[in-house]
Amino acid sequence: MLFIKEYRDFDFDRGEGEVIISDGRFELSCYADLFYPKTSNLESNYQLIPLSVDELKTDVEGKYYIQKLDSPYFSYKLFGKLYFEDKIRIQIGDIKIVLSSYDVPGDIRSGCFVSVVVSRIDITRNNTNVEKKKKINH
């Protein structure tokens, strides 16, 4: 189960800023906008959306891991399992990050371990249309 571990530089009136989410084993720093969690169950109301997805490829080591990158501030290299369900997701522990079908090469199948680099992860309401997210240029 995901939970908010910490609020950093967060404006509670505007619901905007940095939040650290965790499943107790892994954690991510995310950008939140219009974020007003009124429930402890983040998965039912919010989703994690990466921006500028790069280098998505099969990972032969098959490990779950989150590596914080130095630049830009919110960037990560993620190692997890890819699932094609109602949405395409990479899962690291209980952390599930929604991907666009445009981000996934055609030769990667559901259930494969993958690695991917993201410049930022946003936490948004579940009704956000992922396909409308635009790639951010580096």
Please summarize what this structure is.
With 138 residues, the chain is mainly beta. The protein is built from 1 helix and 9 strands; from the N terminus they run E-E-E-H-E-E-E-E-E-E. Strands 1, 2, 3, 4, 5, 6, 7, 8 and 9 form a 9-stranded mixed β-sheet that branches.
What is the CA-atom radius of gyration, in angstroms?
14 Å
Main beta sheet: strand number and arrangement? 9 strands, mixed
The rough form would be described as: globular
Mean pLDDT: 84
Keywords:
138 residues, mainly beta
Describe the structure.
- Strands 1, 2, 3, 4, 5, 6, 7, 8 and 9 form a nine-stranded mixed beta sheet that branches.
- Mean pLDDT is 84; it is low at 128-138.
- 23% of the residues are buried.
- A hairpin with a 4-residue loop joins strand 1 and strand 2.
- The protein has 138 residues and is an all-beta fold.
- It has one domain (3-126).
- The chain has one helix spanning 42-45; strands spanning 3-11, 16-22, 27-32, 46-58, 65-68, 76-84, 88-92, 95-99, 113-125.
Blueprint of the fold:
Blueprint: E1 3-11, E2 16-22, E3 27-32, H1 42-45, E4 46-58, E5 65-68, E6 76-84, E7 88-92, E8 95-99, E9 113-125
Parallel strand pairs: 3-9
Antiparallel strand pairs: 1-2, 2-3, 4-9, 5-6, 6-7, 6-9, 7-8
